[in-house]
């Protein structure tokens, strides 16, 4: 294993990457790097609804199985991402015309089959993803429109029943500062917990850029607030965007942001994982989105360590 993975293992800390199933079984260098550098992986796309049920009633775990088996071979834990999201739905579902009752069964079957199908193999599920809007209201997704606000509690309950040993997370973006969305997410989880809904953790996606350096101390306070609700904290999708044409100084800023976020996490005893959203810069989602260049991760295009990589080792 690499110095990074050895340091994480030694610290008893989970340091991970998102893994793109398309590359597994096709790119041996990618597989090798993922295996040696990280001790936990997140399925970047493989568990999204459009891939697990591409045709109505026909479940397919081909993609997910590739990522989960590779992780098992490498002795890595797996974060299952994600059960209930408003995006990445198959067209039969997003464009279909279903009654509330039909949506209800589709929802139940999805969770039961996916979680049940991987029972005992998943460290944590992102049960719901991005359910709060920036203004603090619940997002008006296909799920909420048909099932009402209770769909969130129901998703956790069904996931718990399907795999009692997996930790169940609510995953959210842009709540790294104490904004309206973060406050609403905090209130939501507090009320779910009060009702006995089985929620174990909060995932902070942490897609940030250079301007985040001045906000890391606020992020630490936000993590502390959520931890005080009795939650495990995971940083689930971190990347630090330094623009299209970064200079050496930008990579040093990037390294400081990664290290400060890691330090904040390590200072909270229920913060157990930091997962970055791609094994190296070349495989960042910020590239395939727009065709633009992006350099947000720990390893460069040739899988060589960047300043952030070495800084993380020093902090672990
Ligand atoms: C992204 C993947 O990285 C892309 O490959 C895919 O095309 C779209 O989804 N927040 C999330 C992730 O919770 O699921 C998203 O992943 C990135 C933003």
UniProtKB/TrEMBL annotation:
Biological processes annotated in GO: xylan catabolic process
The GH10 domain, residue ranges: 1-315
InterPro entries: GH, GH10, GH10_dom
GO molecular function: endo-1,4-beta-xylanase activity
EC class: hydrolase
PROSITE patterns reported in the protein's UniProt record: GH10_2
Keywords: Carbohydrate metabolism, Glycosidase, Hydrolase, Polysaccharide degradation, Signal, Xylan degradation
EC number from the UniProt entry: 3.2.1.8
SUPFAM superfamilies for the chain: (Trans)glycosidases
Catalytic activity: Endohydrolysis of (1->4)-beta-D-xylosidic linkages in xylans
Family: Belongs to the glycosyl hydrolase 10 (cellulase F) family.
Official protein name in the record: Beta-xylanase
Organism: Deinococcus hopiensis KR-140
Organism classification: Bacteria, Thermotogati, Deinococcota, Deinococci, Deinococcales
């Amino acid at each position: 294993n690499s110095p990074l993975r050895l340091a994480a293992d030694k610290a008893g800390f989970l340091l991970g990457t998102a893994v793109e199933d398309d590359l597994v079984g096709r790119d041996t260098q990618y597989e090798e790097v993922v295996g040696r550098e990280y001790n936990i992986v997140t399925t970047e796309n493989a568990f999204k609804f459009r891939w697990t049920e591409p045709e109505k009633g026909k479940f397919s775990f081909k993609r997910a199985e590739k990522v989960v088996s590779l992780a098992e071979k490498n002795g890595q834990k797996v974060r299952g991402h994600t059960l209930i999201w408003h995006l990445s739905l198959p067209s039969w579902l997003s464009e279909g015309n279903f009654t509330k009752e039909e949506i209800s069964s589709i929802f139940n079957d999805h969770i039961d089959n996916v979680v049940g199908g991987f029972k005992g193999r998943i460290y944590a599920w992102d049960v719901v993803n991005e359910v709060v809007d920036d203004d603090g209201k619940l997002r008006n997704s296909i799920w909420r429109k048909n099932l009402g606000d209770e769909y969130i509690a129901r998703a956790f309950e069904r996931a718990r029943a399907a795999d009692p040993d997996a930790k169940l997370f609510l995953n959210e973006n842009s709540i790294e500062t104490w904004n309206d969305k973060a406050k609403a997410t905090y209130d939501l989880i507090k009320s779910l917990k009060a009702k006995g809904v089985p929620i174990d953790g909060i995932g902070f996606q942490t897609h940030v850029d250079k301007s985040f350096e001045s906000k890391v101390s606020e992020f630490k306070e936000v993590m502390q607030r959520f931890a005080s609700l009795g939650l495990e904290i995971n940083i689930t999708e971190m990347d630090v965007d330094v623009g299209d044409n970064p200079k050496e100084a930008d990579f040093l800023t990037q390294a400081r942001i990664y290290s400060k976020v890691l330090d904040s996490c390590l200072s909270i005893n229920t913060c157990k994982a930091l997962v970055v959203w791609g094994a190296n810069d070349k495989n960042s989602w910020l590239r395939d989105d727009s065709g633009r260049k992006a350099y947000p991760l720990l390893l460069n295009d040739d899988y060589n360590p960047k300043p952030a990589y070495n800084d993380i080792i020093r902090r672990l």
